[in-house]
Amino acid sequence: MLKKRIIPCLDIRDGRTVKGINFVDITDAGDPIELAKRYVEQGADELVFLDITATVEKRKTLVELVTHISEEINIPFTVGGGINTIEDVSAVIKAGADKVSVNSAAVKNPDLITQIANEFGSQCCVVAIDTNYENGDWMVYVHGGRTPTPIKTMDWIKQIEELGAGEILLTSMNNDGTKSGFALELTEEVSKSVNIPVIASGGAGRKDHFKTLFETTHASAGLAASIFHYGEIPIPELKRYLLKENIAIRWT
Amino acid sequence: MIAIIKYNAGNIRSVQNALTRLGYESIITDDKDEILNASKVIFPGVGEASSAMKYLKDKGLDQVILSIKNPMLGICLGLQLMCNHSEEGDTKCLGIFNAEVKKFPPKEKVPHMGWNSFSDLKGELFKDIKADNDMYYVHSYYAETNEQTVATCNYILPFSSAMQNNNFYATQFHPEKSADVGTQLLKNFLEL
Topology of B2-190 in CATH? Predict the structure, then answer.
């Protein structure tokens, strides 16, 4: 049986791991490679590295970091943040990343999704969506959740699936940082509307939030950052709990 | 020396890193002699079938692969290209495995992405590996099961998780990305 995935997200700035609370108030939380290795030992199913500096001059640093990560860990990982062109994608994939995640660049230039799919395969093209609920609709935001767009999330997901996206990383800005649970209705609506896997993100604060996510939606994975970084919920404890609750989980 | 066949497929470096972690030296090459003289060959692959086959043919690598006498391990698209034919781009493949590669019907999420268990494990490739161990898969096309199937995975329908024909081995999953269990499988292959 295909297992539900537990994915820690590591936000990277200047080569260090950080986590934004509601996308501001950033605090330092460690060395990305050490943290990544610890997550692998603990049974993380996949890792996401999000480079939140992602300025042009830092690109080389990111590629070097990806090279080291690939040398050290033996599970799949995704790299995102400031990936704007097919050349950026190529550099990160060739350094050893399994997937890239694109967000603002895909909104600005949707053809990038098709380019990635054609050159490297849909399976390595994750489209990340930051979405906020306002006036009765879920709206797409770009630039790390700072800039609103007139695009409705439900329209955008269908478009990106057609363009060749292989997976959706869906972050509810309303839930992110609140630790009050995932955006269940949104996640289910998106999961039912597309046939590609959906990773739910934003709001995980307790173990039962993951149980509810997997029992009430068709999400393929749950992503979180701070609860794992600060050891609030160790991954083995989360997985043991989910197994006991009869959720299909990889146990190592 | 282990040869990793170089072609226009994506993430080859992960395979080499996995071998390095196991203490094996390897080269990424498309040179005929280096491939044929290697003690083991790995045929990795993430990408699209028709363009990958075209690349192999243009470089003459299709004939090189067919004349390999030492153990070869195909991974993911590698397994699919070792079959007779793929629906992806209506591609005639290498014909090492007598199987057809088809697209998953859209009854569940496609691609089949993530960790899955398998059954009916056969042969030395699976030494110290159990059926309830999970391996990491990411693919939208699958190889049918036949008498060369040495492990079966079930997603939407049963398909070949691993295949073997004499010295030719292949896995649909990515052992280099399948944590310690995948590393064990690579170790088993390298110790054949």
Answer: Rossmann fold (3.40.50)
